[in-house]
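Hi R.,

Here's the input for the zinc ion complex you asked about:
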Amino acid sequence: MANPLRILLDAVLPARCPACRVIVDGDDRFCAACWQQLAFITAPLCARCGAPFEHDMGPAAECAECLATPPRYDSARAALAYGGPARDVILGLKHGDRQHLARLMARAMVRAAGPLLDPAARPLLVPVPLHWTRLWRRGANQAALVAAALRRQTGAELALFALARTRATPVSRGLGRAARAKNVRGVFRVTDRERVARRRILLIDDVLTTGATAEACARVLRRAGAAEVHVLTFARVVRQG
Ligand SMILES: [Zn+2]
Ligand SMILES: [Zn+2]
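And here is the predicted structure with zinc ion in place:
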């Protein structure tokens, strides 16, 4: 929601680095120190989950993990490796009154999505939902804020409530892959099957961690007849080595 006081303050206060909040020359610009720490994810990467590769193995190559256990989604793409300033931006969006960070995140995500957002394919943006109890406490769903910014920047159709969370899940921070998968089992439901059927879905979230949430959402979207499910996040956890 546009707050008139906020707009006024934004106009008169100096621009700040979206990660560390030091004063910078222009809106949505990182300071030099944060910029240097941003780890943009670029090719070569796993064709499926988007994990960066050390060596180029061709555009269709998949990582060992995806070959062993193929994800339910067609692909996952992220703009940045999670950590440092990328984490600060996500935390700022989640906990602060900084909804404009969504605009900056969306811009980076458009680049990471590339042809997935081709208007000819009629991509449908679907944010990962929060349970209403969390939404009420937080005041906003960060995935929905980012999805709305993506719609404004690309004109892609947005289905804010196509997915719902049937119950609040315990905080998954610190849980491993199997525990996270169990945590989200049966949690998501498609509320509008007509809308997702035969469509290319772009599932939007701020960060991809183990992929358990993305998998659970992809499973129900596929069951509802989605033609393709791609996951698009601002950041993703990148395992070292
Ligand atoms: Zn900074
Ligand atoms: Zn992979």
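One thing worth noting: The two ends are 43 Å apart (CA to CA).

Cheers,
M.
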